[in-house]
Amino acid sequence: MANVKINLLINKPKYSAHIEESNSRIFTTGEVITEQKDFMRGHGTYLEDGFIKSSVVGVAKQINKLISVVPLKSKYVGEIGDVIVGRVTEISKKRWKIDTNSRLDSVLLISSINLPGGELRRRNAEDEQSMRKLLQEEDLLSAEVQNVYTDGSLSLHTRSLKYGKLSQGILISVSPSLIKRRKNHFHNLPCGISVIIGNNGYIWVAPIVNVEEQGGGFAQCLDPVSKGDRETIVRVKNCIQALSACYVMIYDTSIMYAYEESMKYDVKELLNQDTMYEVGFNAKQRILQLE
Amino acid sequence: MVQDLLSAQGLRMDGRRHNELRQIQCKLGVLESELFTHKNRCDGSAYMLHGNTKVIASISGPKHPSKSSGKKDESFIFNVRVKFATFSKNGERQKVLKNSKKLGEIEINLKNIFKSVILVEKYEKSQLDLNIEVLQHDGGSEICTIVNTATLALIDAGICMKEYVCACTASLTNDGLALLDVSHLEEICGGPTLTIAALPRIGDHEQSVAFIELSQKFYLKDLNKIFDCCQLGCEKIRTILDEAIRGNAYEHVNSDLTSN
């Protein structure tokens, strides 16, 4: 008989003891942040009766005279230069529409990609018709934010060999606020796995492939992946989910810590809620010790 | 004549005093699971138990408008869908009408209430879906619990709003005493019921009212009394919601989030 384990939200353990140490103050919707008039209102705030009030629940941030409230959980708000992982939802004239976990779908113009083999693009009807050969609906890709339009939607580009179509691996989606902004979002972990940590909360875990061999970033590598690699990929995926469940910031070090903590368990055991929280919490402790 | 709702000792049928709410329990982020894929994932959810009424609300969006939503104008698309479970009333299985007038009315009311509170200009061209499931419902004033749950879900999803929206009901005894938070039993015993959805401000006694509904006629002189009672209830509910939200928020916040 199959052994089924059911996890109830009620039984979710609470690791809030160390949180009270942090002196960050939470503002809730409608709460007055400041009564002084000489401040500017930023994101997550609104002005009423001359007071700056919070419009979301989150942590207040002040840069000089600008006050903004960062919500705990929200859709991805793009910034130029961010690395993102996205999924093609639609192909229209000269552009791909891409789901990037933001409020509106992003666009990838055909003029902002490198054609395979470094070929130059001929501007004619043919290359618009052959767009589907490069990227189809439901394909995954990594890209960089080129521009943010006034309505908040993003324009992407893949003008580098590291960006392009993703072939074999696992996509994990976490809250964008958990992604730590770093210099590099492409990592080859010591365990022999590559991860792309998109700023938009989508994380791609895949076996390491040599970029130079691919040439152009739109070729798909469909070589069989060894069982050992696949197990490691799934373990990394479970570790990232454990970190996300414990609200630990996700970057290469935290993933490696969680990975090391998880080694004493089987891969499938990591799906168990208790194990998940233990792994996440241990990784968090190690990060705190590091600081 | 209406049956007396208040005993000689000043207690109601379920043992509450005239100015006491029913028990409220709430939880945020209930439909959140690491195991959902990104397509069927919801962006915010909440569960509320208010007396014998149980409601789950979930938010999906703000997202790119789906093709089926049809409207391709500049403005913000806000869809509300309310569903009553077949077993929700009296524990008996009942046929649920999908497009009944009553449901339509609740949906329109909710739409108007929340469109007035959400900072709509931030969500131009996008779509927000609010789905509400009433698992168990106790009497006619279910809109009150629905509004409170929807507020929690919207906050959980990180939607920009001006204030919490809190809804509450009140009724009147034969002696002209206002009763807070009417239960189903009290409602069927008669007496007018006033439902309001208000935006209670902290430290400010004047509330903006987003929605008001009256079930029966009563004397104008009693209006102020009932209205004040409702407002008091809204303030009390706000405190309860605020506590739940802060409790949930402190769980999220780690020292990393502020440094980013």
TrEMBL record, chain A:
GO biological process: CUT catabolic process; exonucleolytic trimming to generate mature 3'-end of 5.8S rRNA from tricistronic rRNA transcript (SSU-rRNA, 5.8S rRNA, LSU-rRNA); nuclear polyadenylation-dependent rRNA catabolic process; poly(A)-dependent snoRNA 3'-end processing; regulation of gene expression; TRAMP-dependent tRNA surveillance pathway; U4 snRNA 3'-end processing
Keywords, comma-separated and alphabetical: Exosome, Nucleus, RNA-binding, rRNA processing
rRNA processing keyword on record: yes
Record bears the keyword rRNA processing: yes
Domain K Homology: 169-206
Major place of residence: nucleus
CDD domains (alphabetical): KH-I_Rrp4_eukar, S1_Rrp4
One Pfam match: KH_6
Domain RRP4 S1, first and last residues per copy: 75-147
A GO molecular-function annotation: RNA binding
Domain Exosome complex component N-terminal: 30-60
Subcellular location: Nucleus
Gene3D superfamilies: 2.40.50.100, Nucleic acid-binding proteins (2.40.50.140)
GO cellular component, one term: nuclear exosome (RNase complex)
Family according to the record: Belongs to the RRP4 family.
The protein, known as: Ribosomal RNA-processing protein 4
From TrEMBL, chain B:
Gene Ontology biological-process entries: nuclear mRNA surveillance; poly(A)-dependent snoRNA 3'-end processing; rRNA catabolic process; U4 snRNA 3'-end processing
GO molecular function: RNA binding
Domain of life: Eukaryota
GO cellular component: cytoplasmic exosome (RNase complex); nuclear exosome (RNase complex); nucleolus
A Pfam cross-reference name: RNase_PH
Exoribonuclease phosphorolytic domain location: 20-159
Family stated for the protein in its record: Belongs to the RNase PH family.
Protein name: Exoribonuclease phosphorolytic domain-containing protein
Taxonomic source organism: Chironomus riparius
